[in-house]
Write a structure and sequence with these properties.
Blueprint (H helix, E strand, L loop, with lengths): L5 H11 L3 E5 L28 H13 L1 H4 L4 H4 L13 E5 L7 H4 L5 E5 L2 H9 L11 H20 L3 E5 L4 H20 L1
Parallel strand pairs: 1-2, 3-4
Family: Belongs to the uridine kinase family. NRK subfamily.
Protein name: NRK1 kinase
GO molecular function, one term: ATP binding
Length: 192
């Protein structure tokens, strides 16, 4: 969901996990001139066609082929409960975005799937506090953003498995703790 806390959560995880990188879907938006406009005049940013998804897949696969090349070990990770000395061969890539699980070419790559949700009123309130380039036009949230979120969320619920739904209204530290502990458990399983 837009403004659900995806980027904030990803950045906080990166600070406390060893050998962790982030790829953000927002970095793959097409320029405004290449984004289609619907009959109401809304730029259709909340659809897969607004993104260079093939480039994103290439970037993810490139990281997977050589994660150590791009990995930066932060000071925070050095003091985290996962000891980097014991995890030199473990690399974590967080791929953060809003249409990740609806793109077939990515579905085989996920070890974990987290989906932040927000109720309509909270989502609209948060969205109204953000400044976008280009700016949201009047009616854009109700006419495009929210309907696309519901459409893709319904598709996800019908087609994807192993998705952990997270309530984006929960405190950030609670969400961070939940996801961090889940990742720690997964890393422990991989070491067994």
């Amino acid at each position: 969901v837009t403004n659900g806390g995806k980027t904030t959560l990803a950045k906080k995880l990166q600070k406390i996990l060893p050998n962790c990188d982030i790829i953000c879907q927002d970095d793959f938006f097409k320029p405004e001139s290449e984004v289609e406009t619907d009959q109401r005049g809304f730029k259709l940013y909340d659809v897969l066609d607004a993104l260079y998804m093939d480039e994103m897949v290439k970037c993810i696969r490139s990281w997977m082929n050589n994660p150590a090349h791009s990995c930066v070990l932060t000071k925070e990770a050095q003091t985290a409960s996962i000891n980097p000395k014991n995890s030199e061969d473990v690399y974590i890539l967080i791929v953060e975005g809003f249409l990740l699980y609806n793109y077939e070419a990515l579905n085989e790559l996920w070890d974990r799937r987290y989906f932040l949700t927000l109720p309509y009123d909270e989502c609209k309130r948060r969205r109204s506090t953000r400044v976008y380039q280009p700016a949201d036009t009047p009616g854009y949230f109700d006419g495009h953003v929210w309907p696309m979120y519901l459409k893709y969320k319904n598709e996800l619920e019908e087609n994807a498995s192993n998705v952990v739904y997270l309530d984006g209204t929960k405190p950030q530290e609670e969400l961070l703790s939940h996801v961090y502990n889940d990742i720690v458990q997964e890393l422990a399983k991989q070491r067994e």
